[in-house]
Amino acid sequence: MARSQDQAPPWGHKWRSSEFFIIAATATALLTDMFLHQFLVSILPFVLENRLGLGPELIQRVSEMLLAETALVSFIVTPVIGRYTDHLGARTWLLLGLFGELGGSMIIASAHSLLTLFAGRFVQAVANTIVGVLGITHLTNNTSSKGTEKIYGVLTVSLAAGSCGGPLMAGAMFELTGYWTAWMSAFGASVVGLVLQSLMLVPPQDTENEVKSVIAQANVAEDITEASPLLVPSSVSDLSKMSDQLRSTVKTIQNLDLQFYIYLLTNRRYIGGILSSICYAIVSVSFDTTLPIHVGEVFQWGSLQTGILFAILQGPNAFFSVPVKWLKDRVGSRYPTSVGFLGLAGLLWLAGTPGDDRFPWANLGYRGPVIYGAAIAAMGIFMTLLNGTGMMEAANAVRDIETQQPGRFGEEAYSQAMLISRLSWTFGLFLGPIVSGQLTEKVGYHDMTGILATMCLFCAVFATWTLKSSPLH
């Protein structure tokens, strides 16, 4: 016993266990995870056509199935992660998640059959869920309560960089150096994340708290995966207290009575937030499903141009998410959400005009590519206005219910409201590839964007009617 107490601390203990290094290592893990998860998007048509030998008529259908699989797996796996995190330390889970992302990427890169491709994406989806959940837990439990804005900024930039960097790097490296060189760059990024995560030392007491709050973190991770780096609800001003506020999620179904769900599902603000989350998820993931194929057919663009489009679509999140959060904290989500959907409605319609014979003015010379690229860039900005609406309005709805029924439902009400909000986002991510892919096949790209534009217009009106302009304090 005396010997163990006298043992010298591990090499580099001071800097390896510092708050700065924990933030840097975990942010790198999240960036790497999102980078690998999105890496396939810009080169997927090539993989399906040239490596799997699929005909052009099947590429759209397989793309939508592959992307829908991701949301479905995340929906199923999240509770399993929460159940078994007590058996392993949080850092071990993060390492497993990063190894899973690397392994899934290797399977996808070497795939010559649909079975192998879907198996690799399954592994990636499981790993992405693990890293997303545990990464946020690491940061919230190993950073001082004064570091809320710092954490938010780091997470925002990390996930935005991964989301736009993955398709951009894949497209550029593939076009300039070839298929396997492109994948080697992804594997190299994964190794960097693994090395930093292996070096990180987490205090034992923080690790214990991490594994207890993992399900709660999953409930607020809605806007992280696939589309949005707005990581936490605007109502939670102190990230270090988030797990305490949501810890009872597992018991909510048993403890809450039917009347709470009636109150919740008849609350206009809550329904408005839920619908906004679903619509936003459908629109955001529709780009992954249809954009690479569309620009290849209409503009004969390759993976490089496709990667650039995804970069300008996702990039604004890194710059505007923090100002948008500040805005919503002060004026509420009603007007930002309505403006966001109105902007998307017009821009979606405009993006569908190039390449359509019914709009010859959009196909003169280089006008089509310019219109499409400008529309994508503008949509990236408007989409930042939609970040976090579902979570913010879930918190608002619970406050309304607590005002009507003080102290009746307790903390479980907040947890369950967040859980349902998260499920609505996941449902949108599952529905989006199917809706956009099927519409593109049946009625064409322009009519698909027109239908999504109509949906956004309806959501703008509905948000104006259901949401309130008062901020959440």
UniProtKB/TrEMBL annotation:
GO cellular component, one term: membrane
Topology class, membrane: Multi-pass membrane protein
Keywords per UniProt: Membrane, Transmembrane, Transmembrane helix, Transport
GO MF terms held by the record: transmembrane transporter activity
Domain Major facilitator superfamily (MFS) profile intervals: 22-471
UniProt main location, coarse: membrane
Subcellular location: Membrane
PANTHER family: GH10249P, MAJOR FACILITATOR SUPERFAMILY (MFS) PROFILE DOMAIN-CONTAINING PROTEIN-RELATED
Family: Belongs to the major facilitator superfamily. Vesicular transporter family.
Name assigned to this protein: Major facilitator superfamily (MFS) profile domain-containing protein
